[in-house]
Write a structure and sequence with these properties.
The chain contains 17 helices and no strands. It is mainly alpha-helical. Helix 8 packs parallel to helix 17 and helix 14 packs across helix 15.
Length: 478
């Protein structure tokens, strides 16, 4: 993120003051003025980073508001397609220019010069608007759903504008669907004590994941990915550290967003469901960044034909979907190859699924659980290897890290390994509880005495290890 601009971070004092003012006003206003105030607050929240880029949100809002109504009102399919094209082309043009212009200009220049021609496409000093990938996909899904007949457009412009700019999930998701969030905006909301407590818990747990776990794990991972250390054991440690860092950072943001939504009377979708307990890539993508993976499934993979047109077409569709999913994360070859890597995992697991079923152990509960754990651990390491590619600063560094990783395996430094295990211990404790009870809010349903002890332990971690500076969330750069 450009150093001249600063986002109003969830983990900052500025945001705490901002939210206190917003919530105080929210409680005393009626439904109409709650929505108007939230819209103004959302624009202030985004404009605090760079007010100039509010124009992009406003353009997307007007474009999709008009196109949505025109698609719905048009009698002929030709006119419906024209307005759908205008919506999708307009949104993708804005996204493509700000996010990918320099990337493709640089690579095209290198390709042309490789064949002996002397040409240079000048790169531009473009600042990537924070959250543009998230709200662009959110607004596009609105017009696509109307075109498909699954949604009626709203004619309340300011309420639609709030759907686009709703500040809890504006800059890093989840990528909401209009059929979930828009009806909640249009309908009056009432204060609910249970929802309030759930919101407070989600905010606390999300902040804990961010400032205690993720921000401290970043200190373990950065020396390797910044090119300071290139020993096998240190690379292994950095790989594990980043795997839990990116999870806690992004899941932490999503939990805070959901918690803020609950305080304001909204139910924002879950974005993570214990993804590191997955046994295969399909399960992983049903649990990790659910709002993006389900978007890619519904608006790209299935329209391409999904798995309905034979093995070859299915593999093609998987490759296209995951390649674009990787590119969604940023204009870098590391993200492209990370997407291709996950496409390979999806295809490989589909190929050997039947074989895995054949070697499944006898139906003994203990043996079955051990077999499940073995599959989870094996696939977790495949995911971690993918994170090595994802986090590398360049494709050259990714290749170097892989070479050093497998050249003379070494044990990670004991002190740093102990620090990593100490940091993720609360995550494991809460995760086991959530898994056993099949409930992401399981902590709230423990006996009061157990809850008090648990919160005191977390408070101890927070006071002892909580990073005092407001560090940006990883997914702000996407």
């Amino acid at each position: 993120m450009d150093g001249d601009y600063r986002i109003m971070l969830f983990n900052s004092l500025e945001f705490a003051v901002f939210m206190a003012i917003v919530y105080g006003l929210y409680l005393v206003l009626n439904h109409k003025w709650q929505n108007r105030m939230l819209l103004v607050a959302s624009y202030i929240f985004y404009g605090a980073w760079n007010w100039k880029f509010l124009s992009l949100i406003f353009i997307s809002t007007i474009l999709d508001y008009i196109c949505g109504i025109r698609i719905y009102n048009s009698v002929s399919m030709k006119r419906k397609r024209i307005f759908l094209f205008l919506s999708v082309f307009g949104n993708l043009s804005i996204l493509g220019f700000f996010k990918y212009f320099n990337f493709f200009a640089g690579d095209l220049t290198a390709l042309i010069n490789h064949f002996g021609f002397s040409i240079r496409l000048n790169s531009l000093n473009i600042i990537l608007p924070v959250g543009i990938s998230f709200y662009t996909f959110q607004t596009m899904s609105y017009t696509i759903d109307i075109y498909r007949g699954g949604l009626r457009p709203t004619r309340k412009f300011f309420d639609f504008a709030l759907f686009v700019a709703f500040f809890p999930q504006l800059v890093a998701g989840p990528i909401e669907r209009a059929k979930n969030l828009l009806p909640q905006i249009l309908s009056p909301r009432t204060f609910n004590v249970d929802r309030f407590y759930e919101g407070c818990y989600l905010i606390f747990w999300g902040l804990f994941q961010k400032v205690v776990i993720a921000d401290n794990l970043a200190k373990i991972a950065e020396p390797v990915f910044n090119g300071w250390k290139y020993k096998s054991g240190e690379i292994v440690l950095a790989m594990y550290a980043f795997a839990f860092q990116i999870f806690c950072d992004f899941a932490g943001y999503s939990n805070i967003a959901r918690g803020l939504g609950k305080l304001l009377g909204f139910e924002i979708m879950e974005n993570f469901r214990q993804p590191y307990l997955s046994t295969n890539p399909r399960e992983f993508w049903r649990r990790w960044h659910i709002s993006l993976s389900s978007w890619l499934r519904d608006y790209l993979y299935i329209p391409l034909g999904g798995s309905r047109k034979g093995a070859v077409i299915t593999r093609r569709n998987i490759l296209i979907t995951m390649l674009l999913g990787g590119l969604w994360h940023g204009a870098a070859w590391t993200f492209v190859f990370w997407g291709i890597y996950h496409a390979f995992l999806l295809m490989a697991y589909r190929r050997f699924e039947i074989l895995l079923e054949k070697i499944s152990p006898p139906r003994n509960i203990i043996v079955q659980r051990l077999w499940w754990m073995a599959k989870v651990i094996f696939f977790f390491h495949l995911v971690c290897f993918g994170w090595l590619i994802f986090r590398a600063s360049s494709l050259n560094q990714a290749v170097s890290l892989v070479i050093y990783l497998f050249s003379g395996l070494q044990f990670p430094p004991i002190g740093e390994l102990g620090r990593l295990l100490f940091l993720i211990a609360p995550l494991f404790a809460v995760g086991i509880l959530q898994y056993k009870r099949c409930d992401l809010l399981a902590m709230m349903k423990l006996r009061p005495a157990v809850q008090i002890v648990s919160y005191l332990v977390m408070l101890y971690y927070l006071l002892l290890l909580g990073v005092r500076t407001s560090e940006e969330f990883v997914y702000f750069q996407f």
